[in-house]
């Protein structure tokens, strides 16, 4: 078979600027990337979001009814699933950047997610994949077997691995298609448009998941409710691979995470060395100038001390990066360590946001009717958080700030760190309000004689739950956007991937801590004749106490946040070093 030959453009048909580089340019290479690939990338991410987020809201009911788990076991399992889903994108970013590349990482992630949704669908389709229904003859219900439980967990694991591949690289891979290294004056405009559409469709996907998929599960059952996400994931993988010939597929490169490990290892190796008296004894990146390492976390400076001249090659590169690092590597690690205390203050907000099972049981026990013929599915109340987040961002950016700037006569913006603090405060208020609503709901349930009947309908509108959901959305808008902007402004430009990974890591840690808090609350609040705060019977438990306990922890977290802000301060020395590092990157 003949190999396909690429066509070439003659020198006479090229622009003057192109003539300097080559006399022949392959036409086919110029077709790679561009706007034609963006719909496929966005469709892949959007369909994956609809599939995965559509499974979460009603999963509490599926586990409690079909697998007969109690509320604590159910919520803990969902916490672990959430932790894996939020942590694995960080692993995916390392794998994509250092080993497989972004295209292959997204492609494999799509396949894993599809397999996970299929396995979950099979648990609903195959009766022997879950415990048999309880009979009415008075015999004890059969519990979940180990193999049934492992099959369920395996489906969650596959979906988490898939999310790690897709979410870690989708946005960056889309940006690669538009940043083709040319001098296109519309490049940045296209990039801004891509980011806008990307985030808009992600929000729209979550809203569709919280309404459409949840409605299907409520009305048509688990077989259809889990089958539709599996079909969507198949379409997600298919849409991504269809455009494979048109993608720009960047080569793998060294990863910043490996750089951090190198700094720590080399600093430990050189712990016996004395600090040099002159700057020339420190190893710098080529063309970066000879800035001095900062004095904060001084121990790490030993990683960039030149012990012997032969440690540096004639081209200025370290002979062995595990024996000598650059000043820039050391300062990048210091910058990360410096923001970690403030990063940790956002974990409490994520803990509050992750309490998905309790609001679901509350909504299920309340009157959810909007009209006589339509009621909101219990799993769809999370959509109000997304709606509130979207509306608040629009009002804040397009109404409040311009109005404040007009009144003040100068541009007015809240600093990212201030917005982070406001987010923590609003999250605390959300937990307080959630506790008050639950306290009123429980009193009404007991008054109606429903203490032993958790399935009974309380004469109280579930629309009250919109208030804490809206507060959660506003808290998320302040905290997530503010913290992301804070990370990008405080960390060097070369660490942009770290800035985007910190939020996901925070949510992963929050899910694990939330499991610890829930298990402790269940263990230490129940005893002989005493019901746990987080009992599976919502009317016997005291969910309001649990909400108020979270509010108390959030209040302490706000005090911790203020202390971190005071300790963080403004380090001119660090700021100057970071700016010099960014300038050197621009020169390169």
UniProtKB/TrEMBL annotation:
<comment type="similarity">
    <text>Belongs to the major facilitator superfamily. Phosphate:H(+) symporter (TC 2.A.1.9) family.</text>
</comment>
<feature type="transmembrane region" description="Helical">
    <location>
        <begin position="222"/>
        <end position="243"/>
    </location>
</feature>
<keyword id="KW-0812">Transmembrane</keyword>
<feature type="transmembrane region" description="Helical">
    <location>
        <begin position="545"/>
        <end position="569"/>
    </location>
</feature>
<keyword id="KW-1133">Transmembrane helix</keyword>
<feature type="transmembrane region" description="Helical">
    <location>
        <begin position="378"/>
        <end position="396"/>
    </location>
</feature>
<dbReference type="InterPro" id="IPR018456">
    <property type="entry name" value="PTR2_symporter_CS"/>
</dbReference>
<feature type="transmembrane region" description="Helical">
    <location>
        <begin position="76"/>
        <end position="96"/>
    </location>
</feature>
<feature type="transmembrane region" description="Helical">
    <location>
        <begin position="197"/>
        <end position="216"/>
    </location>
</feature>
<feature type="transmembrane region" description="Helical">
    <location>
        <begin position="35"/>
        <end position="56"/>
    </location>
</feature>
<feature type="transmembrane region" description="Helical">
    <location>
        <begin position="417"/>
        <end position="437"/>
    </location>
</feature>
<feature type="transmembrane region" description="Helical">
    <location>
        <begin position="498"/>
        <end position="521"/>
    </location>
</feature>
<feature type="transmembrane region" description="Helical">
    <location>
        <begin position="103"/>
        <end position="126"/>
    </location>
</feature>
<feature type="transmembrane region" description="Helical">
    <location>
        <begin position="146"/>
        <end position="166"/>
    </location>
</feature>
<dbReference type="Pfam" id="PF00854">
    <property type="entry name" value="PTR2"/>
</dbReference>
<dbReference type="InterPro" id="IPR036259">
    <property type="entry name" value="MFS_trans_sf"/>
</dbReference>
<dbReference type="InterPro" id="IPR000109">
    <property type="entry name" value="POT_fam"/>
</dbReference>
<feature type="transmembrane region" description="Helical">
    <location>
        <begin position="457"/>
        <end position="478"/>
    </location>
</feature>
<comment type="similarity">
    <text>Belongs to the major facilitator superfamily. Proton-dependent oligopeptide transporter (POT/PTR) (TC 2.A.17) family.</text>
</comment>
<protein>
    <submittedName>
        <fullName>Protein NRT1/ PTR FAMILY 1.2-like isoform X2</fullName>
    </submittedName>
</protein>
<keyword id="KW-0472">Membrane</keyword>
